[in-house]
Amino acid sequence: MQVTLVEAGPRLLPALPEDLSTAVLDELKDMGADVKLNTMITEAQPNTLITKVGEEIKADLIVWAAGVRTSKVTHNFDGLEINRTNQLVVKDTLQTTVDESIFAIGDCAAFTQDDGTLVPPRAQAAHQMAKACAKNIFAIFDNKPLKTFKYNDKGTLVSLSSFTALGSLTNKFGKNPLTVHGKFAQFAYVSLYRMHQHALHGCTKIGLIILVDKINRYLKPRLKLH
């Protein structure tokens, strides 16, 4: 099987650090993937993609990944400030800019950082926002001043299916990130995923989820043919 990855921009994973993008690119090439950067697709036909310069890319299976965009349901909230990706624009307290009685967190919130960039739509950001939002809601009930939110990037882990993983982990001071790859990165990725599941479901249910996952991995075939 030959995999061709087409990216319109100059590098993969543009929201992540450039050195990590380069590492992912090198890893994909080592795995045999044909990566085409700076290649914009203007038309899709059955089993064929047409680039901006007229090149035809043949494929038996085409998967289109168009990035992150918030649901248009936010347009139903009359009067609130919304950006071009349907996110609710919030202040540094995570309150919406128009109505301070409404908070927005996670992927649906557009929070501008000190450097002018938006907080990325990632699980760790949503987790940190949720904690800050809860504290500010309690502060309102207790007639206390609200605290400003500051995103702390604890690093990035990228899973390349079951083949490998890589990423960078940041210490609590945000300096000297540690680059990880291979089995250790895969273990860190799975551990982080299980931590998110634990936060949502609790100890008992996450234990059952892990057990079911292991049983399914043993019973289900790796390749399903029809």
UniProtKB/TrEMBL annotation:
<dbReference type="InterPro" id="IPR023753">
    <property type="entry name" value="FAD/NAD-binding_dom"/>
</dbReference>
<comment type="similarity">
    <text>Belongs to the NADH dehydrogenase family.</text>
</comment>
<keyword id="KW-0274">FAD</keyword>
<dbReference type="InterPro" id="IPR036188">
    <property type="entry name" value="FAD/NAD-bd_sf"/>
</dbReference>
<dbReference type="Pfam" id="PF07992">
    <property type="entry name" value="Pyr_redox_2"/>
</dbReference>
<keyword id="KW-0560">Oxidoreductase</keyword>
<dbReference type="InterPro" id="IPR051169">
    <property type="entry name" value="NADH-Q_oxidoreductase"/>
</dbReference>
<feature type="domain" description="FAD/NAD(P)-binding">
    <location>
        <begin position="2"/>
        <end position="130"/>
    </location>
</feature>
<dbReference type="GO" id="GO:0019646">
    <property type="term" value="P:aerobic electron transport chain"/>
</dbReference>
<protein>
    <submittedName>
        <fullName>NADH dehydrogenase</fullName>
        <ecNumber>1.6.99.3</ecNumber>
    </submittedName>
</protein>
<dbReference type="GO" id="GO:0003955">
    <property type="term" value="F:NAD(P)H dehydrogenase (quinone) activity"/>
</dbReference>
<keyword id="KW-0285">Flavoprotein</keyword>
